[in-house]
Write a structure and sequence with these properties.
five-stranded parallel beta sheet; alpha/beta; 222 residues; Rossmann fold; homodimer; 7 helices; 5 strands
Chain lengths: 222, 222
């Protein structure tokens, strides 16, 4: 059974991605990052979900992205905007997916894994450039030139199984895979118990997904 | 004056790269990583060289690459091989340049810099895949799809000014730029004072560079 590294934030999308990877038969090594994010409750959610969904391991790496600042998610002096703006929002974290995928690549190489899963979504997303298909393709191309295992013939694949799904389709998939949706934390400013604000972009996208899927929203709001 | 992020390990190559970037007129933000490497004396060397060579700032970020293991540079149970082997050596650190460049990319975006310098070398190098021109081109392409600043028009450039120089040419350039060569630490297993072993790949490449350049080797051997 092939091993795969799965980026797991603890939100709806990454939990669904992990469940899909497990169902496809991968031995999943879940990887989370403590990067000084506001919504640290998602790290507790990630640990819970990794166990619930059958990851064979779960590791949380500390990463000093807050040292850079520049994002409402890591700089407590920048407010999280309410949903609905246009353009790339203040919650954008500089180069976040690039840093996360790079660490996943290192982890994959050491584990002898050639497959990396990420819950990026290009449909109902927040306007982040590093969630677009052309970005993910470029990362995969780079990765195959970067590491010894790839040079020696084990081709790296970046899987983003949610890339072309709507939020409603993700919700339906998550329900079908038996994910404890109340345990997933998508909110950018969840409180310490993981309860959501209901106002930020991420909350609004998620809530709309439940409405459009015709499924009662089990999110714990505060 | 444009700002540039310069990866600075504290070795001969990265010091030369920093001096070249300063000479080209960039305001240089030097970036080093404490990644659990054996040769931590290079971090002291990096701090010294950043100041000597005129970087406007120097930051050392902690990165947990040793958590992955898999390299003689970060796993104390794997011996550093003597120089002269073939293939990709045991000192290869999984995805190291990818992780370093990704962090540099985040740093550059926050600082409003579009230029990143790395001392990668494809001639007298140690056989690492992530020092090849095609790898660096692929990283640059990916970076320009990854970050907001690039999407908004400020194109990222990855500069590797040593890429096609021999070690002898790097030594001559370093001398011409006034670098305190005795303060650079290239050895993979330098002692706490930064003194070199003289035996590892990196030491042997460096020593040969001085011989071929016809310049007395000021390296502090132990």
């Amino acid at each position: 059974m092939a091993a795969a590294v799965v980026l797991l934030s603890g939100g709806l999308d990454s939990a669904t991605t992990l469940a899909m990877a497990v169902r496809e038969g991968y031995r999943c090594l879940a990887l989370s990052f403590d990067y000084g994010q506001r919504h640290r409750a998602e790290l507790d959610a990630a640990a819970h979900l990794a166990a619930q969904l059958g990851a064979v391991s779960h590791r949380t790496l500390r990463l000093d992205l807050s040292a850079f600042g520049g994002s409402a998610l890591t700089d407590m002096t920048i407010p999280v905007p309410a949903g609905g703006g246009t353009g790339i929002p203040a919650t954008y974290v500089p180069a976040r997916n690039t840093v996360f995928l790079s660490m996943a690549l290192a982890c994959a190489e050491v584990a002898g894994a050639a497959d990396i899963f990420i819950g990026a979504n290009a449909v109902d997303y927040s306007g982040y450039p590093d969630c677009r298909p052309e970005y993910l393709q470029a990362f995969e191309h780079m990765a195959n030139l970067a590491i010894r295992a790839a040079v020696e013939g084990q081709r790296v694949r970046i899987h983003a199984p949610l890339l072309h799904l709507s939020k409603a389709e993700i919700v339906r998939t998550a329900v079908a895979l038996g994910i404890e949706l109340a345990q997933t934390v998508s909110c950018y400013q969840a409180d310490a118990q993981g309860r959501a604000c209901g106002l930020c972009d991420s909350c609004q996208l998620r809530a709309r997904g439940f409405v459009e899927a015709g499924i009662a929203d089990p999110t714990r709001y505060r």
